[in-house]
Inverse folding.
């Protein structure tokens, strides 16, 4: 069947119990990009995050058996939905987690709604997942386009960046990020002078950057992610755009992107994230363990989000003694979230997990103390302010 080839490479990992044991109590599928432009911020690192969550949970629940499987959706909505359907119908998967690429996340969200299964999105960004496309068993964990727009967009307008031009990835995530950021810019007193859209996984941004440069906007908003952001920033540097007085706004920038760019190119970028490995002793301890499994790489917020999400999900399974989505998600929404990476939070009625977000600036080479020491904190955005108000999303699950 077309679209199911990634399943051949799917890795089945028994994190608890022996491979010869009976069917696991719960089965979790990590569905993401494992080979493409989003593999660095999700990929195998998200599988490791899920494994670590299970291992840590079993310290207090040693009898719980959990199986983790993983597959590559290839950034294709039809492939992602086919894998999800096969997992649910034939392989007994109880919950799918991660799902970077908003188009794929929306497609898997639809399958999960149909099958009454839990999906927890850590890597996909569109705020529609907790808006018009919200579903009873869908939880959006780590970030969304609304939180990114309000964190980075409003901060830059306040700093004088009151005219914007968007360079936007031409798919669901890019469209949502441009939409949400443009709204913030206008509400903050700024103006949007134009936008240009580019295909996903573009390599040549010259024509797009010429249009952005010609707009004379003070801020060029990069409504894209991962490899697209990296290539756009590199080529903007080669064009001398920032030297000409325009500022780049990385509307979704991951730690892995900054590491790939290097501080000489990335320094001064202002960005919003929900997690940074060097925030406190707990995050540093997690990052050390993660790095030992990932050849020294530090976790991104998406990979940390998978750890956090799986932790809360397992607490719900243990508390309800059920794999059924209805009591599990009800418990997840009724009980606050607490873990060493995201601290305290909660899952709202619309499925939005709220927690603090952080405004960071990329350090200069002179400020950095090591390879992964790349951010300085400009502000903490409290959970209550970091995400769209519950009443504003248009989620049909929210009672007026």
């Amino acid at each position: 069947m077309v679209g199911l080839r990634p399943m051949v490479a799917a890795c089945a990992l028994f994190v608890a119990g022996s491979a010869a044991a009976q069917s696991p109590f719960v089965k979790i599928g990590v569905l993401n990009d494992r080979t493409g432009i989003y593999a660095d911020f999700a990929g195998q690192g998200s599988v490791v995050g899920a494994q670590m969550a299970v291992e840590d949970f079993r310290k207090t629940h040693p009898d719980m058996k959990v199986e983790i499987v993983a597959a590559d959706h290839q950034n294709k909505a039809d492939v992602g939905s086919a894998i999800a359907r096969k997992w649910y119908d034939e392989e007994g998967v109880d919950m799918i987690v991660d799902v970077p690429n908003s188009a794929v996340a929306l497609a898997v969200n639809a399958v999960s709604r149909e099958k009454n299964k839990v999906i927890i999105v850590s890597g996909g960004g569109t705020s529609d997942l907790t808006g018009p496309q919200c579903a009873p068993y869908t939880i959006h964990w780590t970030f969304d386009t609304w939180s990114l727009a309000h964190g980075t967009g409003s901060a830059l307008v306040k700093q004088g960046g009151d005219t914007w031009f968007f360079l936007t990835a031409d798919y669901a995530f890019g469209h949502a990020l441009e939409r949400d950021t443009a709204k913030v810019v206008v509400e903050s007193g700024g103006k949007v002078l134009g936008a240009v859209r580019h295909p996903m996984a573009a390599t040549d941004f010259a024509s797009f950057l010429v249009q952005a440069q010609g707009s004379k906007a003070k801020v060029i908003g990069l409504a894209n992610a991962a490899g697209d952001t990296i290539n756009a920033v590199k080529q903007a540097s080669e064009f001398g755009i920032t030297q000409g007085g325009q500022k780049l706004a990385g509307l979704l920038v991951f730690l892995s992107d900054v590491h790939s760019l290097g501080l000489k190119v990335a320094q001064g970028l202002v960005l919003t994230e929900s997690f940074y490995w060097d925030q406190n002793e707990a995050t540093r301890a997690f990052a050390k363990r993660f790095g030992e499994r990932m050849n020294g790489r530090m976790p991104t917020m998406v990979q940390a989000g998978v750890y956090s999400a799986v932790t809360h999900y397992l607490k719900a399974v243990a508390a309800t003694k059920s794999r059924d989505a209805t009591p599990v998600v009800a418990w997840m929404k009724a009980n606050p979230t607490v873990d060493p990476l995201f601290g305290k939070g909660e899952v709202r009625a619309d499925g939005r997990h709220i927690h603090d977000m952080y405004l960071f600036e990329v350090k200069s080479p002179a400020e950095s103390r090591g390879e992964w020491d790349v951010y300085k904190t400009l502000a903490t955005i409290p959970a209550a302010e970091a995400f769209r108000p519950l009443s504003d999303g248009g989620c049909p699950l929210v009672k007026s």
In short: Confidence is low (pLDDT under 50) at residues 1-10, 15-24. The chain has two domains: 5-143+280-355, 146-277+357-386. Residues 127 and 306 are 18 Å apart (CA to CA).
